[in-house]
TrEMBL record:
The organism's place on the tree of life at top rank: Eukaryota
Chain ranges of the Serine aminopeptidase S33 domain: 69-174
Cross-referenced InterPro entries: AB_hydrolase_fold, Hydrolase_4
Signal peptide: none
Pfam families to which the protein is assigned, alphabetical: Hydrolase_4
Protein name according to UniProt: Alpha/beta hydrolase domain-containing protein 17B-like
């Protein structure tokens, strides 16, 4: 009988298929700047080499959009590297009007180490930390995007970011063994237990899955959508497979709608904070009267209206007006007298 560790290792072998050889390499140009060979020179893209807490170095591409308000952190599938994804990243950057950070897992592309579940967790944590420290991006402005196996590190990080803007799960898995063995219960040695992590995510979750996916059955996506605490309107692409959903018009259309709504939520949240910060303390009156109504605006005056009758006035309900500096006038209409 196989031990738990053996089964977990076996599942990992089924999970990772890095392109061999890699489709790009990383080198320094004459100015000492990292560039990726085999990819068009793009002055709006930074090539990064990041250290992880597990001792590996992972490559990341950061693509800027000057009109962006949100940043997408993209975790790719198990059989691609950044060289193959560059064109897609450019299209998403332009069509969604976002900044985009993509990265290669340990053992993929020009990243060092070997691919494993826990290495991918360390990989995405290092990339997110770079977004925070190097680019000043806060979690409120980040959308995590996970495709296929990439849904594992995506949900791992999403479960730890309580103020995250949103999550996109593209052809995602419930867990590693559920893809291989089609089991309906949990094993302690399973990998990428998304079925547990999804319950901890506190932001809107968009699920995209093809109904004819013969690698990861669409029921994985449906199960994750049902378990999400804040599910967004899902996209079930009729006839879509595992690796071709980007070719369907509904894909980019629905994704654009999601991004725009997340932008609006972020803007509304910011405006609410601004209003709270600008809210002035309420003025209190020192007058010894029963009823005082005070109107305060951003201008330079305050008007207090009081109902008690003036002393010496035979009319009830006459009004006494007090300017900002305390000057008092009797009512000519009630009393018929001159101002005091």
């Amino acid at each position: 009988m196989l031990s738990g560790c053996s089964v977990s290792s076996l599942a990992a072998k089924f999970a990772f298929f890095p392109p061999d050889p890699p489709t790009y390499t990383v080198e320094k140009d004459d100015g000492g700047r990292l560039v990726a060979s085999g990819i068009p020179r793009d002055h709006s893209m930074d090539v990064l080499m990041l250290d992880t807490k597990r001792g590996n170095k992972v490559v990341a591409f950061y693509l800027r959009n000057p009109y962006a308000r949100l940043t997408v952190l993209y975790s790719h599938g198990n059989a691609a590297d950044l060289g193959q994804l560059y064109d897609l990243f450019v299209q998403l950057k332009v069509n969604l009007r976002v900044n985009l950070m993509g990265y290669d897992y340990s053992g993929y592309g020009a990243s060092t180490g070997k691919p494993s579940e826990y290495n991918t967790y360390a990989d995405i944590e290092a990339v997110y930390q770079c977004l925070e420290t190097e680019y000043g991006v806060s979690q409120e402005n980040v959308i995590l995007y996970g495709q296929s196996v990439g849904s594992g590190p995506t949900l791992h990080l999403a479960a730890r970011l309580p103020r995250l803007c949103g999550v996109v799960l593209h052809s995602a898995i419930l867990s590693g063994l559920r893809v291989v063995c089609h089991v309906n219960f949990n094993f302690c040695f399973d990998i990428y237990k998304n079925i547990n992590q999804i319950k901890k995510v506190k932001c809107p979750v968009l699920v995209i899955h093809g109904t004819e996916d013969d690698v990861v059955n669409w029921l994985h996506g449906y199960g994750l959508w049902k378990l999400a605490r804040e599910p967004y309107e899902p996209l079930w692409i009729k006839g879509g497979g595992h690796c071709n959903l980007e070719l369907y018009p509904d894909y980019i259309r629905h994704l654009c709608k999601f991004i725009m709504e997340m932008e609006n939520i972020t803007t509304a949240s910011r405006l609410k904070k601004i209003r709270q910060n600008l809210q002035l303390p309420r003025k209190t009156s020192n007058a010894s009267t029963a009823t005082t109504t005070t109107f305060t605006t951003n201008c330079c005056c305050q008007i207090g209206i009081r109902k008690p009758t003036f002393s010496g006035c035979s009319q009830t309900g006459c009004l006494k007006l007090r300017s900002w500096k305390g000057s008092v006038y009797s009512c000519n209409w009630c009393c018929g007298g001159d101002g005091q």
